[in-house]
Amino acid sequence: MAVRAWARTVIAAICMGALVTPGYSRAEGEWAGGLTDPRVVEFRVESGVLGESRPVRVYLPPGYAGSDERYFTVYVLDGEQSFYSTAGVADALYQSGYPKLLVVSIPNVARSRDLTPSAWQDAHDGGGADNFLRFLRDELRAEIGGRFRVSGYRVLVGHSFGGLFATHVITTDPGAFDAYVSISPSVFYDGYKPLDDLVRSFGRDPGQRLGLYVAMGAEPGVEGDGIHRLYSALAQGAPPWLDWRFERFPRETHSSAPIVATLDGLRWVFRDCVMSEQQLAGGLGAVREHYVAISGRFGKRMRPPQRVLANLGFAQIETGELDEAERTFVYFVEVYPGMILGYDALAEVHIRRGETEEAIAMLERVLELEPGYGDAAARLRELRGE
Description:
- The structure is a single chain.
- The protein is of the alpha/beta class.
- 49% of the residues lie in helices and 15% in strands.
- It has 2 domains: 38-273, Alpha/Beta hydrolase fold, catalytic domain (Rossmann fold, 3-Layer(aba) Sandwich), CATH 3.40.50; 277-384, Alpha Horseshoe (Serine Threonine Protein Phosphatase 5, Tetratricopeptide repeat).
- The chain is built from 15 helices and 8 strands.
- The protein has an 8-stranded mixed β-sheet, sandwiched between helices.
- Strand 7 (210-216), helix 7 and strand 8 (242-248) form a beta-alpha-beta unit.
- Helix 1 (3-11) runs antiparallel to helix 11, helix 5 packs parallel to helix 6 and helix 11 (306-318) runs antiparallel to helix 12.
């Protein structure tokens, strides 16, 4: 059997968590067609800080129910609009080799009140940003930590007023999150005061390295002017503790920019979680060293993604580096003992070496984990001469 065709068959097991999102009806938790998505959890938080009940919607990573893993958390503002697009981005990134993400969305109750640092013009009820931050930091985070398996690494995603809120958090309590995705932030607000406050805050050291991704569409007028001023401030005086990136999407508007910017922003935040082809050329040792090195930054043990190890091992089989391929897939089954891919790949290595008994043992293990895997059963019968 050609390895390339075989590899495509086996690696499909990695992708079983992919989700095509159907339509969502107005009835809470009810999907079009009468189905309920087990990866969507909805509840309310009774907030003493805000003095009100707040709805929350959580999107679980693929395979959450059958795992003991702890996940990075993405908190997304304007949750009534951004929940499913952000969830789709999280799934797409995972299918591209990035880590699984747990998405927490916070729908608005009083948007201008909660997301702005002061009352100004039409936002006459503004000025509640500090209270809303206290809700996120002291109440919602504790609720999420009590209900779900999450790591300590958190990302905040906000658009427009939500992007303004993200810059306000960096200004007042930068360590509340580990990274910020601020899309088309309304830093022109209140005569550019939030921008001025942010720049002044650069002189303080939060004691940790933080990430800030800023993006905008083609936005004329005062909105775009404020974002360009923010870029200039970052380019001229970003402090050493702030790792930042600025991106402009000229084909997008203020309304469409969040779709592409959320994808690009989260890809940038977690860029070190994937390896380039050049890095992979260093083999298994380089892979293991890379993920050990970034574990400290992300605050948890970082396992090489299944896809990274699989691609490395398949390439080693194709080039005849069977000893290296064996080491790669032995490590794969150490890290992912419940996945059939590693055992199936080891069976192929043993078959190519003519090690029939070892290959049979690996295929038997595959069928213990996945009794209906017909390809493994066929190869096992062939090896046994049945």
